[in-house]
């Protein structure tokens, strides 16, 4: 049985993870889905109300359900993530960073993250007939 303090800590960590997931929507190097999944797990362990709120949320709920049920990422999320990733990395490589080894490292990160995203199944919306 969990103490009240443990539940509060897990709940706060859940909200922190959710915040990182939301920030990850806008920052390509910060992954969205893993933080949302972690938030769901933390909410599940600490507060059924927060867990249900997250699962029923318009934005995060779809990601969590799709990944939990099918280990898949929606096509639009893959496209946006990879586009923003390469846009920000390219900007950094050509305009911000001057050291060649950092440019190579950034290119490696971009390739690695792209491969990681593409390795997951793609969730495609079913067409209505």
Describe the structure.
There is one protein chain. The protein is 77% helix and 5% strand. The chain has 129 residues and is mainly alpha-helical. The chain has 2 domains: 4-72, no CATH class; 75-123. The protein has a two-stranded parallel sheet. α2 packs antiparallel against α3. It starts with a helix and ends in a 6-residue tail after the last strand.
Please report the number of helical segments. Answer: 6
Number of strands: 2
Unreliable spans: none
Helicity level:
over 70%
Q: Could you say how many structural domains there are in total? A: 2
Give the percentage of residues in beta strands: under 5%
Shape: globular
Looking at the chains present, what oligomeric state does this protein adopt?
A: single chain
Largest sheet: 2 strands, parallel
**Mean of residue pLDDT values:** 87
Radius of gyration of CA atoms, rounded to a whole number: 17 Å
Secondary structure class reads mainly alpha
Across the major sheet, the strand order is 1-2
Question: What sequence of helices (H) and strands (E) makes up the elements?
Answer: HHHHEHHE
Span of the ends, CA to CA:
50 Å
Brief account:
Strands 1-2 form a two-stranded parallel sheet. The protein has 129 residues and is mainly alpha-helical. 77% of the residues lie in helices and 5% in strands.
